[in-house]
Design a protein that fits this description.
- By secondary structure, the protein is mainly alpha-helical.
- It has one domain.
- Helix content is 69%, strand content 5%.
- It is built from six helices and two strands.
- Strands 1-2 form a two-stranded parallel ribbon.
- The longest helix is centred in the middle third of the chain and has 55 residues.
- The chain is elongated.
- The termini are far apart.
Length: 215
């Protein structure tokens, strides 16, 4: 009887130990912080310099800005020619009254030059800013579409040479190394989506009809 009682107590302790062993680890697991594993991101790279060089709509808008700039320069040069003629007449004249008239005309011409220059600065700034914002939004839109279709997590732009000839240019090398942006020192060609971004941009945002992009 005594042996049976001891056996029962021992069996009960063993069972209690097993149950406790099941319960305690489960409590520790529930209190521990779960570490979430993050898969490596799928990244694509785009040469922004090359995109801007071959984006036809952007080149077209740049040509329009340059044409407008040339218009202002033509007006200013015409006024400068007038000013030069007035100075020549002023130097050749000995009549005080005539000299005074020439001085007033020269002053009026200088004011017109300043007015044209101010107008040019304001208008060209607005055109340039609008063009920059539009191109930036268009490039981002294409990058987002590309990322969703290809299952990419990140599309990163980097400044680099747009042509093979520029790759050995000291100026381009300095700009690339000094640029405050990502610089892939080696790039797997399979991750370079520059050509596809250019093709999508030109397809979705083609140049306006009747205007050719700048070359």
């Amino acid at each position: 009887m005594a042996r049976s009682l001891c056996w029962t107590k021992a069996t009960g302790l063993v069972v209690l130990g097993i149950v406790a062993g099941w319960v305690i680890p489960s409590q520790q697991t529930s209190n521990a912080k779960t570490v979430r594993r993050v898969d490596p991101p799928r990244i694509a790279y785009v040469n922004i310099a090359k995109v801007l060089q071959q984006f036809e709509r952007s080149n077209q808008e740049e040509a329009k800005i340059n044409e407008r700039k040339a218009d202002f320069e033509e007006k200013i040069n015409a006024e400068r020619d007038i000013l030069s003629q007035l100075n020549m007449h002023y130097q050749a004249s000995d009549d005080p009254t005539r000299k005074k008239e020439l001085q007033e005309q020269a002053l009026a011409t200088m004011r017109r030059i300043e007015a044209i220059d101010d107008e040019a600065t304001k208008e060209l700034l607005v055109l340039t800013n609008n063009k920059s914002v539009a191109v930036y939004e268009q490039v981002r839109e294409i990058a987002a579409e590309l990322a969703k279709e290809r299952g990419l997590d990140v599309v990163e732009g980097f400044p680099s040479a747009a042509t093979q000839k520029e790759e050995r240019s000291p100026k381009i090398s300095q700009l690339t190394l000094q640029a405050p942006a990502i610089i892939p020192l080696y790039l797997n060609p399979d991750l370079d989506f520059t050509a596809e971004v250019i093709a999508r941009l030109n397809k979705k945002f083609p140049p306006e009809l009747g205007n050719k992009p700048a070359k």
